[in-house]
Amino acid sequence: xxxxxxxxxxxxxxxxxxxxxxxxxxxxxxxxxxxxxxxxxxxxxxxxxxxxxxxxxxxxxxxxxxxxxxxxxxxxxxxxxxxxxxxxxxxxxxxxxxxxxxxxxxxxxxxxxxxxxxxxxxxxxxxxxxxxxxxxxxxxxxxxxxxxxxxxxxxxxxxxxxxxxxxxxxxxxxxxxxxxxxxxxxxxxxxxxxxx
Length: 196
Description:
Layout: H1 2-20, H2 62-68, E1 89-96, E2 99-105, E3 117-125, E4 136-139, E5 145-149, E6 159-166, E7 169-176, H3 180-193
Antiparallel strand pairs: 1-2, 2-3, 3-7, 4-5, 5-6, 6-7
């Protein structure tokens, strides 16, 4: 009987201690005064940085590009016209340690012919002998200046291009007869996605 009384007393003491211990609210600001609206709240779970996500048309060829080139790879997340209404494919034209050149085509085996070609994406190492960029200067994100060159149209139209230098690399994105605003959006989506 003594043991049962001891157990009951200890249980009562533990419960009393828990009931009277102060609790701290996780999101409560320090101090007893009202919350100061000018002090920003700190998020409890800061966002976790994620790896860049390419436009799905690059997923089949990205492993080969990463394996064969040594330069930072930039690929656009946004591609004008790849909204699902038109099927586009990414095809490797060239990939070496110092460059990659991709064809955006209407067929999975497009090698750049005018009938299947939609555009292009490329990157190459900048060298002391690399020519100066030409075209209309256009502001891109992150303080980068791009250079737009309009398409030339005859029997067929060439690519309009946006070219810029970043990370010791010259990047170029093109769309056949593309508009400047579409190429700016395409380039900015690649810059925002980050390198692979």
